[in-house]
Amino acid sequence: TRQMVVVxxxxxxxxLACTKALVKKGKYYVICAVRDPAKMxxxxxxxxxxxTDYTAMKLELASLQSVRDFVRNxxxxxxxxxxxxxxxxxxxxxxxxxxxxFTDDGFEMSLGVNHLGHFLLVNLLLDDMKKAKNPRVCxxxxxxxNTNTIGxxxxxxxxxxxxxxxxxxxxxxxxxxxxxxxxxxxKDSKVLNxxxxxxxxxxxxKETGITFSSMYPGCIAETNxxxxxxEWFRKLFPVFMKYVTGGYVSEEExxxxxxxxxxxxxxxxxxxYWSWNGNAQQVGALKQTKKNxxxxxxxxxxxxxxxxxxxxxxxxxxxxxxxxxxxWDLSMKLVxxx
Length: 338
Ligand code: NDP
What we know:
This protein is α/β, with parallel strands linked by helices. Helices cover 41% and strands 16% of the residues. The chain has an eight-stranded mixed β-sheet, with helices on both faces. Strands 8-9 form a two-stranded antiparallel ribbon. NADPH dihydro-nicotinamide-adenine-dinucleotide phosphate binds next to α1.
């Protein structure tokens, strides 16, 4: 029998490409956890994913009730069989919003969908997954949460969780308690995603036997994630990533990378943040030089091809153990598990 994998946000971009890559391997059955199952069936058809290889199941991450309903439906669907793997991939990126949007439970949207919805989902599935053979959970991270890289550090605003005081106050607009900034809210949520992986590993790997990891797929500049960005940005950004930083990756390859984290024996280690050679991560520094009065940008260590998976290091923000412990406690409260 095939192994069962839940992929959130499977109806677009990386999640769809990963679903395709998984079913191609022949040993996986994918539960596509999506906010719009009818859309999923449509895109699956277009992508050539056979109806015998997946099921679309409703999951609205902007509602904790929907997360709970999804888990109940999933358990009914698969009956006693444990879930083998979980991929938390869905995300919103809302850099153009002047004011915050809120989830059903009153959380700022990026925080609620990207972090808290997945936080609850993972926690509700642990007991079931620990019964499976070599179960794995991957929460997709991002370089944008890494303040020591071009993608994360140079492009403002930077991620900054502060002392997480925003999670203690009603309203929950920004994690560090500052004024709303949609681009920063996304980056903060990705830092929270990666922190969650480290905490899951520290607290629950030994007890459950589950492999917890995060990964950065490379910049997939074509996905809908950038749908809110202006037209010129959407046109230029892929070109920039491809030729300047060398961090560009096609949707198809990114999907294979995410599938690899679940399927490759090389990726069985828990508590790891996986990246691939040839990524923007390899880019050491962006140097500004002047030539004939013109400003030029030079990228040290750019390019490089390959695609070999390696253990990357988490950023200092993610490695902040005191904040991570606080994040865990506050998130548990916010999703109603404590
Ligand atoms: P897309 O916007 O193409 O995909 C995001 C997915 O999340 C969509 O399927 C979307 O559903 C789903 N989603 C959004 N809101 C909700 C919600 N409230 N409930 C349930 N599902 C929801 O972006 P990408 O494929 O690029 O992003 C996927 C992951 O990759 C994200 O975690 C992102 O942070 C990460 N990433 C992306 C990079 C890139 O370069 N693109 C780089 C680094 C990381 P729907 O199909 O209905 O719109």
